[in-house]
Amino acid sequence: MANLRIENLSKRYGSTAVLNDINLHIEDGEFVVLVGPSGCGKSTLLRMIAGLDGASGGDIHIAGKLVNALAPAERGIAMVFQSYALYPHMNVRKNMTFGLKFTGVPPKERERRVAEAARMLRLEELLERYPRDLSGGQRQRVAIGRAIVREPAVFLFDEPLSNLDAALRVSTRVEIANLHRMLKSTIVYVTHDQVEAMTLADRIVVMNRGHIEQVGRPLDLYYAPANLFVAGFIGSPAMNFFEARVERLDAGRACVAGHGFLAFEVPAGSLKPGDMLTIGVRPEHLGCHEHSALAVEGVVELVERLGESSFAYLRRADDKLFVAEVRGRETPTPGERAKLTAAARDVHIFDASGLRVPTQNDA
Amino acid sequence: MEQRARSLSVHLVLFAYSVLAVGPILLVVMNSFKTRSAIFGAPLAPPDAATFTLVGYEKVFRSAHILTYYANSLIVTLVSMALVLLFGAMAAWALTEYRFRGSTALALFLSIGIMVPIRLGSVAILNMMRSLGLNDTLTALILVYVAQGLPMSIFILSEFIQQIPKDLRDAARCDGVPETRIFFEVIAPLLRPAIATVAVFTIVPIWNDLWFPLILTSSDSTHTVTLGVQQFLGQYITDWNSVLAALSMAILPVVAIYVILSRQLIAGLTSGAVK
Q: Which chain B residue is nearest to residue A73, measuring alpha carbons?
């Protein structure tokens, strides 16, 4: 068990920077998920923590020890790969004990650890089987077992669920969450799937183009995204964005107006008249509210029915599309004109550089 | 209908090729069991009750050195194969896995070895072996054959190593497996089909080679089978019974090795083509 401290870490291939000045502190026992679109550098960051890729600059500390120059095995980490990377010519038991031979774990202790991991992961029946005879979910559990027997200070998961089918992904996700509860170990988990990130993480690190956009608890990211990228990345379907500008200031309140929605007021803060803003509202927050801060109008173009709710795609007067979630059995019909509103606390405002403008609900 | 015609024509071509390839071998084996007059009288006829004889084999076994020749061929072939496979796999792993100063130049240098036939250097090799005091030894032959086999084996094995998922190597490194053990215990077992392929490609030319035994060995104790057979070929009289019997026997070990490796070999030749 250990904390993990990353300071000014960067990675360059030639003149292309893959990671830029990454700073991240992970507490002992914390489950941190690195999430971002493909190519954002999250896997590279994980491989650098593991010691599989070298850094171009910066430091990594695991359990207070500088590990920059240490080999992967000396860092006290264990990694679970997307492809599982089981040794194909060894049975499950051998897969789990193979590495322990070289790290000075006596045979008796190896057996104990394998037995315990097998019990935890329900692998007892499979110990003599070969990877080729296992299903995807079983292989994934063996890969996790191989990590557990190393008793690492930090677990590293590299998109461990993306090779599983949808149903298995959900159940394995629950297993990983349970495992974390049992082991109480520090976990760094890479995924591009925001649902995995939201459900598993104590804290989420949103990455984009080699730098960290925001670090925070799942619901903080959802309710108070720090910038446009995080706002658009977290949540599905993505947040609707509307262009707007500050019309005037009036007694500490700013009047914000734009195409396709009615003018509304927010606390002025540092806003000046004429500032260009982006207004963000999540589809699930658009509906019919009594005391609404914002109202948008549009013509329903397409309805996606999911069962418990439906997504309506509406076209505004300025020809831009936005999405609204409609709950219940009644679904709108295409061609219908609708006016949807959002409560003040569900309206996100971003300035011209894409940073969040504090509103009353941030307090 | 069209498909059957196509399949028929394909089989016809394959059959013709098989006849072309197997025919001479069959002829050698058949005639090795025939009397001298029958070999010349009806070379294409199989042996019958009247023409059947084992005189060739008897003579070959009576000749004092044939077992030495056999042993020499086996030693040279098997030792060369083992060295080519070991060094070839290790070099292929190093060249694909590690980036070091001169690695590209080294890979290029080795690929030249595929293109330039080693026989061009015969005179230089002979001189070198003489000054090393290795002329007329099996060691000289083994050294030459290892040099001859290495470039191609490195080339083939590199291709196979590139197909092994990089995650396996990374997983082993995270597990704390030392680099040499990663090669011998994780990578090498996965190379088995490739190693079988390379083994066959290495063995056949070495076993059949006449040139280097001819120039590098001079005494009976270092002759190989292919060279030893030559003693039955005289300037005025050729003992065809013995020549054919010795050649038939020389085919056997190669066939045996091929049968042993063939299952692996087929997997090796088709893997990569079929995912």
A: B176
Comparing C-alpha atoms, which of A225, A170, A183 is closest to residue A356? A225
Whole-complex ipTM: 0.83
Which whole-number Å values give the CA distances from A62 to A19, A47, A66, A75, B23, in the listed order?
Answer: 19, 14, 7, 7, 70
**pLDDT recorded at residue A289:** 76
Please give, rounded to a whole number of angstroms, the shortest distance from the CA of A146 to a CA of chain B: 9
CATH topology of domain A237-362: OB fold (Dihydrolipoamide Acetyltransferase, E2P) (2.40.50)
Residues 6 or more apart from B231 whose CB is under 8 A from it? B63
Residues 6 or more apart whose Cβ sits within 8 Å of residue B54: B33
Say which DSSP state A122 is in. Answer: T
pTM: 0.80
Distance from CA of A6 to the nearest CA of B (A): 19
CB contact under 8 A, A52 and B181: no
- What percent of chain A clears pLDDT 70, i.e. is strictly above it? 98
Q: Identify the CATH class of B57-270.
A: mainly alpha
Regarding the domain delimited by A4-232, which CATH topology (the fold level of the hierarchy) does it fall under?
Answer: Rossmann fold (3.40.50)
For B141-180, write each residue's pLDDT tens digit: 999 999 999 999 999 899 889 888 888 999 999 998 999 9
Low-confidence ranges of chain B (pLDDT < 50): 272-275
Can you tell me the distance from the alpha carbon of A274 to that of A247, in angstroms, rounded to the nearest whole number?
6
Q: Where are the domains of chain A?
A: 4-232, 237-362
Quick one: which of B242, B275, B228 has its CA closest to B70? B228
Tokens of A273: 């008249």
Is B171 an interface residue toward A (CB < 8 Å)?
yes
Beta-carbon pairs below 8 A across chains A and B: 63
CB neighbour burial string for A311-345, b if at least 16 within 10 angstroms, e if fewer? bbbbebeeeeebbbbbeeeebeeeeeebebbbbbe
